[in-house]
């Protein structure tokens, strides 16, 4: 299938997921889009068909939330992130959307996305992962759906469980070996933390501090260390392309939300990793999972 045709279909699917009540479809769509980008010549129509079917099965238009743009004929004199944060803390969806929309009229959209990502990492339990994938999809389409993307991010936050933020230390450096070298039941969260902390972001320092604080809760000294024999020579030679090839060879019946998401998270980490040792750990985690299913 022509890559331009695929991109246009992904755009329509993105709009469909933004106005739906399902966040997992957004994760799957971003995963397919990114895996497709590994090798544009690899025309994995089976994976694309599976992605489309997954989204169509699991999305329906959301009637709970209003996606109408606020009146911007007269912008308020004071537009600030403080007002947006105050509305989020009250879990006031409409007020949060209004302030985010006003900020988008005077500020570059990426900064608002990063603010919402940081807020979710500090205050929320799960919404950071949805916000990250929406962020990536929105940037991919040059913020064409910025308002709906902001609405969906805010929806994920106000629906989430809030934490009382504890003191965040200034230390931002994470010794990833301490976390990657052992088995981890929450491996997808750990991989997302790695991807976010190594991405080029405007608010990278603050976001990295938030991740450093969260990640300390994932370390367990009882975890079993990974076996270095778990990495295949073909994976070392092909790198991320191995993921694309493996999914192409898989039977469509073997596809699942869990395996597609893990494959994409491993892909992202391999792309952003700075050392060969880190890459080895990522392959070990993937192969450990593949050996269990």
Q: Would you mind describing this structure in some detail?
A:
The protein is mainly α and 293 residues long. It has helices spanning 3-18, 24-36, 45-58, 81-89, 93-106, 109-123, 127-140, 146-158, 176-180, 187-198, 204-215, 233-238, 241-249, 257-272, 276-292. It has three domains: 3-58, no CATH class; 81-158, no CATH class; 172-293, no CATH class. Helices cover 63% and strands 0% of the residues. It is globular and about 60 Å long.
- Rg value: 20 Å
Give average pLDDT, whole number: 90
Q: How are helices and strands ordered from N to C?
A: HHHHHHHHHHHHHHH
Number of extended strands: 0
Count of separate DSSP helical elements: 15
Structural class: mainly alpha
What is the helix content? Answer: 55-70%
Please, how many domains? 3
Mass-distribution shape = globular
> How would you sum up the major sheet?
none
Distance between the termini: 30 Å
How much of the polypeptide forms β-strand, as a percent range? under 5%
**Which regions contain 5 or more consecutive residues with pLDDT less than 50?**
none
């Amino acid at each position: 299938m022509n890559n331009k045709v695929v991109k246009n279909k992904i755009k329509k699917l993105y709009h469909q997921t933004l106005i739906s009540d399902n966040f997992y479809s957004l994760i799957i769509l971003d995963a397919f889009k990114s895996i497709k980008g590994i090798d544009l010549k690899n025309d994995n129509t089976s994976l694309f068909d599976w992605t489309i079917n997954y989204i169509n099965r699991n999305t329906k238009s959301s009637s709970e939330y209003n996606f109408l743009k606020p009146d911007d004929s007269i912008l308020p004199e004071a537009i600030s992130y403080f007002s947006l944060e105050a509305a989020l803390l009250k879990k006031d969806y409409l007020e949060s959307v209004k302030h985010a929309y006003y900020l988008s009229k005077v500020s570059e959209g990426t900064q608002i996305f990063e603010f919402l990502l940081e807020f979710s990492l500090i205050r929320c339990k799960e919404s950071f992962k949805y916000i990250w994938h929406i962020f990536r999809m929105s940037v991919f389409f040059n913020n064409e759906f910025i308002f709906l993307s902001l609405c969906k991010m805010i929806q994920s936050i106000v629906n989430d469980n809030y934490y009382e933020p504890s003191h965040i230390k200034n230390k931002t450096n994470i010794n990833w070996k301490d976390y990657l070298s052992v088995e981890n039941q929450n491996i997808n969260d750990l991989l997302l933390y790695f991807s976010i902390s190594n991405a080029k972001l405007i608010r990278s320092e603050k976001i990295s501090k938030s991740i450093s604080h969260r990640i300390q809760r994932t370390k367990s000294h009882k975890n079993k260390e990974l076996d270095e024999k778990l990495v295949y020579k073909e994976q070392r030679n092909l790198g991320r392309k191995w993921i694309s090839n493996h999914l192409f060879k898989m039977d469509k019946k073997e596809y699942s939300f869990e395996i597609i998401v893990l494959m994409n998270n491993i892909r992202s980490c391999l792309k952003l990793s700075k050392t060969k040792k880190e890459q080895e750990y990522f392959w070990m985690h993937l192969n450990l999972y593949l050996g269990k299913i």
